[in-house]
Amino acid sequence: MAPILSKHQKIALALTVLSTCGVKKKKRNSWCKKWLLLRKTLSHANVLRELQPDDFKNFLRMDESQFENLLTMVTPFIEKEDILMRDTVSARERLIVTLRFLATGASYEDLKFRAIISPQLLCKIIPETCRAIYLSLKKYIKMPTSEAEWLETARGFEKKWNFPHAIGSIDGKHIEIEKPSESGSLFYNYKHFFSVILFAMVNANYEFMFVHVGTNGCASDAAILKNTTFYRKLMEDKLNLPQPCPLSDGCVPVPYVCLGDSAFSLNRHIMKPFPFKEISHEKRIFNYRLSRARRVVENAFGILVQRFRVLRQSINVNVDNIDYIVLACCVLHNYLLKTSHARYLTSKSVDREDVTEMKFQPGEWRRSERLTPLEKCSTRQRNEEGNNIRNIFTEHFSGPGSVPFQEHMLRVVKLSDE
Fold it and tell me: How do the domains of the chain map onto residue ranges?
């Protein structure tokens, strides 16, 4: 009779049998692909240490001192603690890959081999860092809040662009995006692609004073502006604008105005060009003077897209993250203008009118892809108050407010609405 084994003896016997049968342990899948372990030696962060100053600037669209200053500001928002058996992506690496994404528009799949970060992690890091950039730099986008500040802005337009009583140049552009899931035609615009709209007001120095992003691409031109807090405060007289005053001696008081193109509706605070069909010479002079001053917003958008090429192609990220990507580009534009104006904005970057030689030199940005403008507004609705104010400006520019070069430059410069 076979001996009866105890419980412990049975367990020992079973373990012995398993060990002698050559049972192989299941090989555990590695939680991390081997190439991702090379981030400390092969990523963007290591390449930057070897770059010359000009190469550094081309790589990230800013010099090293600007980068280090920005890193100090965003680190509290994006720094993560290391976890067991793994080093987290540092704040420096997060900022570098995000700036590279904004500068080039490269896909997450392309960036993963350059930054040595998986696409799954990049889709979290980049939107989070864009938000941190915006929160850290939003102080660089500042709209005047007092009468004195508005007067200073208006003096800038009059001194640089010969347009009195101007408080800002306004425009809107379509930012192309991939169709969001289950969105139908909500983001489908008049140019037959999907987009969100960036509206901005710019001062005489190409700086954004106000930006609004996120209106869906199918929205009407009227809705785009009217959906902004800026417009509501403007029309309710809550911006602390200076009181209307004459453009010259003997002239009736005129309010301070924004300068727009044919996409906007004319009213007491927004000037737009006259339609070009059968207009008088005086009205063409007004259109030239308006275009000369309003061009600062066109150039601001042109520089923005040239520096941050993510805006030049269809942005393929979750629609909830698009706003912060666009806002990050806008605040970086102002940050770089303020901290390195001469390097960021060269004489060839923007349109130039040489009123001595009577020549017009287009900005470099005009040779590359541009953002899609808003659809032109129908002229059927007539605003009598706005039209009367525009007529006062028209008389002023062909009278006491004329400038010596306007007749010749009118023949040289092609106006965008002609």
Answer: 34-139, 149-412
Nearest by Cα to 168 from 184, 181, 180, 157: 157
Bridge-based pairing state of the strands 257-259 and 245-246: unpaired
- Contact 268/328 with Cβ under 8 angstroms? no
pLDDT 10s digit of each residue in the chain, 418 long? 556 656 555 555 555 555 555 545 455 454 445 544 444 555 555 555 565 566 666 777 788 899 999 999 999 999 987 665 456 889 999 999 999 999 999 999 999 888 888 999 999 999 999 999 999 999 999 999 999 999 999 999 999 999 999 999 999 999 999 999 988 999 999 999 999 999 999 999 999 999 999 899 988 766 788 889 999 999 999 999 999 999 998 889 999 999 999 989 999 999 999 998 878 999 999 999 999 999 999 999 999 999 999 999 999 999 999 999 999 999 999 999 999 888 899 889 999 999 999 999 999 999 887 899 998 876 556 799 999 999 999 999 999 999 999 999 999 997 765 5
Residue 143 CA to its chain's centroid (Å): 16
Of 171, 169, 36, which is closest to residue 115 (Cα–Cα)?
36
Residue from 112, 110, 97, 108 nearest 67 by CA: 97
Q: Look up residue 330 and give its two tokens.
A: 């806008």
| Residue 345 DSSP SS3 | coil
Identify the bridge partners of residue 352 per DSSP, sorted by sequence position: 361
Q: What pTM did the predictor assign?
A: 0.86
DSSP letter (8 states) at residue 83: B
Percent helix, strand, coil in the chain, to 5, is 50, 10, 40
Q: For residue 282, give the nearest of 176, 178, 206, 395 by alpha carbon.
A: 395
Residues with Cβ < 8 Å from 351, sequence gap 6 or more?
295, 298, 299, 360, 361, 362, 363, 366
